[in-house]
Design brief:
Number of domains: 3
CATH architecture of the largest domain: 3-Layer(aba) Sandwich
Oligomer: single chain
Organism: Ottowia pentelensis
Distance between the termini: 91 Å
Pfam families: HTH_1, LysR_substrate
CATH class of the largest domain: Alpha Beta
Family: Belongs to the LysR transcriptional regulatory family.
CATH topology of the largest domain: D-Maltodextrin-Binding Protein, domain 2
Keywords: DNA-binding, Transcription, Transcription regulation
Number of helices: 13
Shape: elongated
Helix content: 40-55%
Radius of gyration: 26 Å
InterPro entries: HTH-type_LysR_regulators (IPR050950), LysR_HTH_N (IPR000847), LysR_subst-bd (IPR005119), WH-like_DNA-bd_sf (IPR036388), WH_DNA-bd_sf (IPR036390)
Strand content: 15-25%
Number of strands: 11
Length: 332
């Protein structure tokens, strides 16, 4: 029996199936928009409605895209569609390309009008109650046609989105260098606006709301609301309670709405970022207690991409942030 032919060691390696040039020839931007909408909607029918297209047109575009990338992007089922492994790997690249397309549209619009566009903002708890609302109000007065989209989440979610271009700016307590992955850190630049501190607060109708002097020892038996252990303020929380240790009766939460509801309906006491505490005290919802021992726990500011100039709309928003930060930081 003849021996099988040995592989030709001198044969050239197989050419890769994809290259930048081949993808540029085959892919269409509309296909990326359709892919992203189907992923977000979870069904072809819902995506068709959002894009004002027919379902057959959506299906055809997806089939063409799957043919071009060399595999299925979604698994079709009775309850809709879910991304395949290839679809999950394709998604961040599609999102990044669409984000760049949005920036191109904003650049063109800003060149023509100067006061239109969209700013996508990621926010942390320390900014959502005071700094961000004031900045949006200032922006609205200066450029009323700029649309601001706000996403709330932790650093671990927001900074990767910023690095990929899906967010224009992240606003809140600035993290330490170790909190941001190395590759992301090199692409990001932060600007501090003011130092944030914690304050002890109660509901406006709390029996202690009108006290002029209070010691921490008088409050230890109460039910407390404190920031979560993964928050930027946690080291300051531990330092504040010191040798007494954390209160036995406590809720750990950084949800402003949850904390306000708990304080309004009970005798609880809470630790809250100073800017938020002062904002809600001015609105008559909370009272800030005169308890000493709480200093600054970190800087509040904003983070942007270091390797890309902001759009005109984002630059207007950053100017509004700086003005709001100056106002909130005055007197601290």
């Amino acid at each position: 029996m003849a021996e099988p032919d040995a592989p030709d060691a001198a044969a050239p390696p197989a050419r890769p199936a994809h290259s930048r040039a081949s993808l540029a020839r085959r892919l269409r931007l509309q296909q990326l928009m359709i892919f992203e909408q189907v992923r977000a909607s979870g069904s072809l029918l819902a995506a068709a409605g959002e894009l004002a297209m027919t379902q057959p047109a959506i299906s055809k575009a997806l089939r063409e895209l799957e043919s071009q990338v060399g595999g299925a992007l979604f698994v079709r089922g009775k309850r809709g569609v879910t991304p395949t492994e290839l679809g999950r790997r394709f998604e961040p690249h599609a999102a990044s390309m669409l984000a760049e397309l949005r920036l191109l549209a904003e650049t063109l619009n800003a060149t023509q009008a100067g006061t239109r566009g969209q700013v996508v903002v990621g926010t942390l708890i320390s900014a959502s109650a005071a700094l961000l609302p004031e900045a949006i109000e200032r922006l609205r007065r200066a450029a009323p046609d700029v649309v601001v989209s706000v996403r709330v989440g932790p650093n671990t979610l927001l900074f990767p989105l910023l690095a990929r271009g899906e967010l224009d700016v992240v606003v809140g307590a600035l993290p330490g260098a170790a909190a941001v992955a190395g590759a992301e850190s090199a692409r990001l630049a932060s600007r501090p606006l003011y130092d944030e501190a914690l304050r002890v607060v109660v509901g406006a109708q709390h029996p202690l709301a009108r006290r002029r002097k209070l010691a921490l020892a008088e409050l230890m038996a109460l039910d407390w609301i404190v920031p979560t252990p993964d928050s930027m303020a946690w080291p300051s929380v531990r330092a504040f309670f010191g040798a007494a240790g954390l209160p036995a009766r406590r809720t750990e939460s950084v949800s402003i709405l949850t904390n306000l509801a708990l304080l309004a309906g009970s005798a609880r006491v809470a630790l809250m970022p100073q800017a938020a505490a002062e904002r809600f005290a001015q609105g008559g919802q909370l009272a800030v207690l005169p308890v000493r021992g709480l200093g600054a726990f970190g800087a509040v500011g904003y983070t942007v991409r270091a390797d890309r100039a902001p759009s005109a709309a984002t630059e207007r928003f950053l100017a509004a942030l700086r003005a709001a930060g100056e106002h909130l930081g005055r007197g601290r």
